[in-house]
Amino acid sequence: MDLTYTAAEEEFRSELRSWLRANIPEEWSRPGFWASLDDDETFRLRREWERDKALAGFAGIQWPTEYGGRGGTPGMKAIYDVEMVLARAPGTVNPLGLTFLAPTVMAIGTDAQKKEIIGPLLRNEVIWCQGFSEPGAGSDLAALSTKGVRDGDDFVVNGQKVWTTNAVHGDKIFTMVRTEPDSAKHRGISMLLIDMHQPGVEARPLKQMSGASEFGEVFFTDARVAASDCLGEIGEGWRTAMLLLSFERGASGIAQYTEFRRQYDEIVEVARKLGKDKDPVLRGKLAKVLADLECLRLHAMHVLTQVEQGRDLGFEASMTKLIWSEAFQDLWEVFDDVLGDDATLDELDGIDLRPLHLQAMWSRSVTIWGGSSQVQRNITAERVLGLPR
User: Is residue 248 among the annotated active site residues?
Assistant: First the structure.
């Protein structure tokens, strides 16, 4: 495991840090700034800022230059992830397109798809959603019921997707559709690329317990999509989906550690202000979480080393998702322990707890989306450790 970065990578860090310092408006860091804006205004500001960042050369860090990327190393991408967190820069408004879709299109897309998708996505000209989850499928991605019936050069799509990030602001959606109704469970599925602004596609927001509407549900009613807008082979959508998901899980860890470590320090500071930092039980729980976070850091650097050496992590990437999601959830359970009976208050002893409550509520979801912890444990046991089913 290599814990160092090259001179070129450190030079990139300095350049990126300077750009972020000069281009993040001071008011964005003021307490309550983002909460004072409605969802549409927040999305607009973040979208424009991210476009400017891409035009300045700070997007697609590891993408080939032919696709508008920087052509950087895995180490540069790791540095980018860390510096964005440290600068408290806005998160991307196009996460599913950047993390999942673009690398998949680079790998298996047609020349036309590469031209039409990658550049506009990088510049936030087109916002992409992911249509995987369905109301009756649970964590079983292959149990989908959305159907696409061939009609000449098109598919006619009917069905519903749920828990769709950015559904309301999305321009297009890459979605799993059963295009061969009599096929075996993991066969006969296609990954279709559908325009969300056409007739027959309706997106409805879902209100979360935090008050935000990051997710939505998408309804297809005789929506049409050209057969040429299939990513990968028709009927081979399961294989395409597994390739697509591998790009998320193989890269996770370093940014998560950086963000979680900062949140840990914030929770410790709350404990100090409330006079609970001497409680031996709480100190023990905080120590365990800190040890888990440091294990996450070392695991993340191990993964980065393997990627830099050209190794395909394959199913071992499930270990990363399992480690960071469980550590994150445990961290915020300790936060609830620190507050005790006061866990529902917005303010306590002059401390504004609302931003921390939002993170605590969000933590409940991370062991479900992106493959539940149960699924990740099964994959690790069967595919990595070789244990019997």
Answer: yes
To which CATH superfamily is domain 7-93 assigned? Acyl-CoA dehydrogenase/oxidase, N-terminal domain (1.10.540.10)
3-state class (DSSP) for residue 75: helix
The CATH class for the domain spanning 128-235 reads mainly beta
Amino acid, res. 251: A
- Fold: same for 128-235 and 252-384: no
What is the reported pLDDT for 159? 96
pLDDT average, residue stretch 131-138: 87
Which segments of 179-330 are extended strands (E)?
A: 189-195, 201-206, 215-226, 230-231
**pLDDT tens, residue by residue, 306-327:** 877 777 666 677 888 889 999 9
Q: Could you say which DSSP state residue 90 is in?
A: P
Task: Tell me the chain's radius of gyration from C-alpha atoms.
Answer: 22
Please name the helix (run of DSSP H) or strand (run of DSSP E) that holds residue 149, with its range, or none.
strand 147-151
Instruction: Spot the catalytic one: 50, 214, 248, 259.
Output: 248
pLDDT at 309 (0 to 100): 78
pTM of the model: 0.84
CA–CA separation, 238 vs 232, rounded Å?
Answer: 10
Whether 283 and 276 have beta carbons less than 8 Å apart is answered as no
Is domain 252-384 classified as CATH 1.20.140.10?
A: yes
| CA distances for 180 relative to 146, 224, 379, angstroms | 11, 16, 27
Give phi and psi for 35, each to the nearest 5. Answer: -65, -20
- Round to whole Å and give the CA distance between 285 and 342: 18
Q: How far is CA 12 from CA 19, 247, 305, 387, in A?
A: 11, 23, 18, 43
Confidence band (pLDDT; 50, 70, 90) for 226? very high
Q: Parse the chain into domains and list their residue ranges.
A: 7-93, 128-235, 252-384
Q: What is the pLDDT of residues 58-90, one digit of tens each?
A: 999 989 999 999 999 989 999 999 999 999 999
Give the tens place of pLDDT for each residue, 17-64. Answer: 999 999 999 999 887 888 888 888 999 999 999 999 999 999 999 899
User: Partners of 225 in the beta sheet?
Assistant: 155
